[in-house]
Structure formats: structure tokens, C-alpha cells
Amino acid sequence: MQVYRKSRKGFSLVELLAVVLILAVLAAVAVPLYVSQRKSAAGRACKANLAAIASAVSAYAIRNGAYPDSIATLVGQPEGLAAVPACPLGGAYTWTTSTTGASLSCPNATAHVGYGGSASTEWQRTFPALATDSIP
Fold first, then answer.
1. Whole-angstrom Cα distance, residue 38 to residue 105?
2. Cα-based torsion angle of the residue sequence 52, 54, 75, 87 in order, rounded to the nearest 10 degrees
3. Which of 11, 43, 57, 136 is 20 to 30 A from 89 in CA distance terms?
4. Which DSSP symbol is given to 10?
5. Residue 110: closest CA among 124, 127, 126, 94
6. What is the DSSP letter of 91?
């Protein structure tokens, strides 16, 4: 007499549900961390862009005795930039000049707060009015 046994092939429903539950928990932990790291990286890149623009503006002002009219003026200058940088979160940096100096700011300053900086003032640079040279 032969006894037929069912061979067990595949996974049971409980095993599949356990795997899906574990994957859901991992995704619930990983996705917010990924989003936070992207925002933090964007904040650090924005600060680096602001520092590079500020350095190029200062060098341009020393050489020419005046601040540039726009950030695009710095492209191609000896102390300038290779291209006009933009904020990683989107938008062009704001450059304004006046008789009292100049200022540079990020359009997404409030979005960067908490991701690489504690205050929105960390996402702007101010430049004082240039002194006139009194040496003949």
C-alpha cells in the first residue's frame, strides 16, 4: 500500500504577510530619513554656493572698485564663476545693490531652516559700501 504525501511547495499566506509587514516597517523608517538627508544636503550645497558667490563678488569688487550689477556678470571673469549657481531647491539667488552696499540671499531661506542652519539669516550675505580710495 502506498501513501501519497503532498509535497509542500511555495509559501503560506502567513509567511507572505510577515515579509510584507517587515518591508513596510523598513520603508516607514527609511523614507523619512532619506527625505531629511536630501534637504540637509540641499542646505549644505546652498551655503557652499553662497560662499562661492560671496568670494567672487569680493574679488570682483577689489579688482573693479564696484560691485557687479548681477551674479551673471561674474561668469567668465578671472575671479568669477564658471556658471550662475542656483539653489538646489530651485530658484535663482537674489542680488541687490544700493548706495549702502549689496546683499545676496537665497530664495528658499525659510525651507533651509532646520536643515543645515538655525536661522533664515544664515542664508544671506551682506556687503558693506565700498570705501573710496583717497590715495592719488
1. 21
2. 60
3. 57
4. S
5. 124
6. S
The H or E element spanning position 94 is strand 94-98
Asked whether the whole model's pTM tops 0.85, one would answer: no
Number of neighbours of residue 68 by Cβ within 10 angstroms: 19
- Using CA atoms, how far apart are residues 69 and 48, in angstroms rounded to an integer? 21
Closest CA to 121 of 102, 104, 99: 104
What Rg, from alpha-carbon coordinates, does the chain have?
28
- Angle formed at CA 15 by CA 12 and CA 21, multiple of 5 degrees: 140
How many angstroms separate the CA atoms of 80 and 95, rounded?
15
What are the residues whose beta carbons fall under 8 Å from the beta carbon of 10, sequence distance 6 or more?
none
Beta partners for 105? Answer: 94, 124
Query: What confidence tens digit (pLDDT) does each residue in 78-116 have?
Result: 888 999 999 999 999 999 999 899 999 999 888 888 777
Question: What digits encode the pLDDT tens for the residues 36-64?
Answer: 888 888 888 999 999 999 999 999 999 98
